[in-house]
Amino acid sequence: MPKTESNPIDLGTRAADFLLPDANGVLHRLADFDTKPALLVAFISNRCPFVLVIREQFADFARDYADKGLQVVAINANDHEAHPEETLARIGEQAEEFGYTFPYLKDASQQTAKAYGAACTPDFFLFGAERRLAYHGQFDDARPGNGRPVTGADLRVAVDAVLKGDTPAAEQVPSIGCNIKWSAGNEPVWFSKAA
């Protein structure tokens, strides 16, 4: 299956603002989470095999860290006209089915994905209290068909460091997944259809 690696983004980059809806019509913005010492913005999908292999453990991960100070926000930026399984209604169904306790939002314009430099699903952006990028790497080394357990080990180590006020290791393994399904004519400059 085709694979896309997350874009290299400079650590220390400030989190981009957003105003996006969940399936209940509630709008969420970056400032809503100002009181949390850590914020994870995760670009995910309802259809990508790389997300499907981790989604239950990702829901567990979010529950594990909710009381420790981590706010998780998931964003779906895939073109829902070409891929109807990525509609706002289907996002709501996924959130309910897999017990997502965090906002799962729709970026229909794809402008938030562009602002973050998101390239694939899953694509993880972990920010500290000042909303500077501290980690932009993989959940763990599990991939569809590779037989490795889904633990979230890499992301857990990074979150633990941020919550302690430490800096995660600078060497971070990029996330790998399906490329974001950009709508026609909306592809960012870094996007390659061959990816």
Shape: globular
Q: What is the number of beta strands?
A: 10
- Give the percentage of residues in beta strands: 15-25%
Q: What percentage of residues falls in helices of 4 or more residues?
A: 10-25%
Give an account of the 3D structure:
By secondary structure, the chain is an alpha+beta fold. The protein has a single domain (4-179), classed as 3-Layer(aba) Sandwich (Glutaredoxin), CATH 3.40.30.10. The chain is built from five helices and ten strands. The strands form three sheets. The chain has a five-stranded mixed beta sheet with strand order 6-5-4-8-9. The N and C termini lie close together (11 Å).
Concise overview:
The protein has 195 residues and is of the alpha+beta class.
Helix-strand layout with pairing:
Elements: E1 4-5, E2 19-21, E3 27-29, E4 38-43, H1 49-52, H2 55-66, E5 70-76, H3 88-97, E6 104-106, H4 111-116, E7 120-121, E8 123-127, E9 133-135, H5 153-163, E10 176-179
Parallel strand pairs: 4-5, 5-6
Antiparallel strand pairs: 1-10, 2-3, 4-8, 7-10, 8-9
